[in-house]
Amino acid sequence: RVLRIGLIPGDGIGREVIPAGRRLLEALPSSLGIKFEFTDLKAGFETFKETGVALPARTVDVLKNECDGALFGAVSSPTKAVDGYSSPIVALRKKLDLYANVRPVKSVASAARPIDLVIVRENTEDLYVKWEKTLDDPEIGVYAEAIKRISVRASMRIGEMAGIIAQRRQKLRESGVPSIHNSACVTVTHKSNVLSQTDGLFLESVRESLSRARYIHDKVALKDQIVDSMAYKLFREPEQYDVIVAPNLYGDILSDAAAALVGSLGLVPSANVGDQFTIGEPCHGSAPDIAGQGIANPIATLRSAALMLEFMNEGEAAAKIHAAVDANLVEAKLMTPDLGGQATTEEVLNDILKRL
Amino acid sequence: RVLRIGLIPGDGIGREVIPAGRRLLEALPSSLGIKFEFTDLKAGFETFKETGVALPARTVDVLKNECDGALFGAVSSPTKAVDGYSSPIVALRKKLDLYANVRPVKSVASAARPIDLVIVRENTEDLYVKWEKTLDDPEIGVYAEAIKRISVRASMRIGEMAGIIAQRRQKLRESGVPSIHNSACVTVTHKSNVLSQTDGLFLESVRESLSRARYIHDKVALKDQIVDSMAYKLFREPEQYDVIVAPNLYGDILSDAAAALVGSLGLVPSANVGDQFTIGEPCHGSAPDIAGQGIANPIATLRSAALMLEFMNEGEAAAKIHAAVDANLVEAKLMTPDLGGQATTEEVLNDILKRL
Ligand SMILES: CC(C)[C@H](C(=O)O)[C@@H](O)C(=O)O
Ligand SMILES: CC(C)[C@H](C(=O)O)[C@@H](O)C(=O)O
């Protein structure tokens, strides 16, 4: 079969890691029976500076109408708010209804502190609706307000996704794939002790969605944890966590925190997943400090390509990529500087391609 | 002089650590010239269950009219929203206009990874205004909204406080007190790449307040960092941070994360500071799992008492407490279970009192 993948490098090191992702897909063994085709697409701050638009309509159209999946690199954020500029990845998530942001964080097999968790982040609402206004009150002066929005529908949907992922991981375990967990557990993150209505609704809806689906999730335990305590426990006992489900903003913060535990953001992939479409996206940003030097870690993008394939039901191709990346990490010889090595993006990529 | 301290143990281990705080204050050497008097005050979930009110009006009145400072323990949060219950500490912060939550996180002198930072958390607004509503729309179903509010006034005020604290720390360094930092730096945390108006306003206001006060802060550098990246860097390079200033919710999450880096929430104090009043409060919660066993770590409360005294201009008394606590930690013989020891609250307290 033929799969057309949209490539949106964005800014900074996005322009170095997305080409690596493309080369990886091209190098997959033909025995898998997949032929990849690619379409280059624009988005980002550079695009905004050139064209006045951060996310061109064509990018959205081509993704919707011509592509089977996509890889997104990273975008720079201006340090001061720029009129008319707004993050294209946040917009893409909403326009394509990619309602789940799935972020697996896993240590290498040899790690002193084993970690194997997935953060399932709601990807369309919370403060990311970006309904903001600025007001000037004669008495209290200038102030701004933003709306945090939590709906039953989006919360149930993300709860379901967390349950499905927990169950899928449990099946892998039962089929003999080694794991640090004995059983499946979904932990819901919230701050319902302060936000009893919004975060309370998130918590109840996730609970409800998982108990409705109990017949498929009967082996999935359900816990909940307040977000501040979660940040603490994530550092203290990360091996405790299997699947973490969180509203958009907590998911954003917690996934960066979790990435720190496995050594580098350069290792952590994500997939923006909807019912129709998936965009793979490394968790790291555009890293202006190292952009253009050819030393960005390509692994987060390679793993994001694998994640994208998983959600396109190409599990075999995904498994090949994961195995090749893990082999590179276990050997720990060719590593980019973020992991303490001296290899270039190109050298790490070639080492991984060799292992496919 | 006579200082009257309100004691609000709250729930759970709050009832074990606040009495320890009282004994500490009573044990301070009389050469300091301070006589402490105490008033016991109620608040918390137990109080709510008894009286129907989580924060009795009398508690607020007595604090306002009779006390010079206070110590607050911790409160339990019901696991499901309970009608009419709302966190008394959040209410107290607003009612007494304790606009800054100051949370120093410091490793012991002998730590492999030295950390010495202070989180200065805005304490009155952001999502903590708790303006929430739940709606039911025929098309989209049930959803809830909460307001995140950021004002210039509150942001400038917290920026000023951060600058004053940074400068105070710098003066201590210059007077020869050993420090892991060479110079003072305030890092502003925000998510202005998504929340350009609210977090943008926070960032700009803090910048403005620090540059207005440039004549007193000329040795204080100013940086800013996006909150997700902050969670990452806090784990990777915690020694980089001196003073961190954050809106309410990010400050809540980041201070628990930072506490994980020094080994236990049981070590981390805070002070809720206003222009007129300070409430010392350990960062840990009511810890129902260990409540009643006499093994809660009293150190977070003892340090909170010291912090309270600092903000009451009783620096000498505060320094005595810090030195006694540090001596206990450096010796590392009598430690509660959270630090891997087997000592009780009582034993740790007595050891520290002995060292005053
Ligand atoms: C760039 C930014 C808008 C984005 C987010 O906050 O979602 C990023 O941090 C991420 O996690 O993908
Ligand atoms: C108990 C809770 C309302 C409180 C908060 O969120 O401020 C606590 O986490 C804290 O940090 O003091």
- The quaternary organization reads as homodimer
Q: Strand percentage of chain A, roughly?
A: 15-25%
Pattern of helices and strands of chain A: EHEHHEHEEEEHEHHEHEHEEHHH
Q: At CATH's second level, what is the architecture of the largest domain in chain A?
A: 3-Layer(aba) Sandwich
CATH hierarchy, class of the largest domain in chain A: Alpha Beta
The main β sheet of chain A shows up as:
10 strands, mixed
First-last Cα distance of chain A: 20 Å
CATH topology of the largest domain in chain A: Isopropylmalate Dehydrogenase
The helical percent of chain A reads 40-55%
Query: CATH superfamily assignment of the largest domain in chain A?
Result: Isopropylmalate Dehydrogenase
The best one-word shape of chain A is globular
| Count of discrete alpha- or pi-helical segments spanning 4 or more residues of chain A | 12
* Poorly predicted residue ranges of chain A: none
Most extensive contact:
A-B, 61 and 61 residues
Bound molecules: 3-isopropylmalic acid
State mean pLDDT of chain A (0 to 100 scale). 95
The whole-angstrom Rg of chain A is: 20 Å
Order of strands, main sheet of chain A, comes to 2-1-3-12-11-4-5-10-8-9
Overall structural class of chain A, as computed from helix and strand content, comes to alpha/beta
Number of strands of chain A: 12
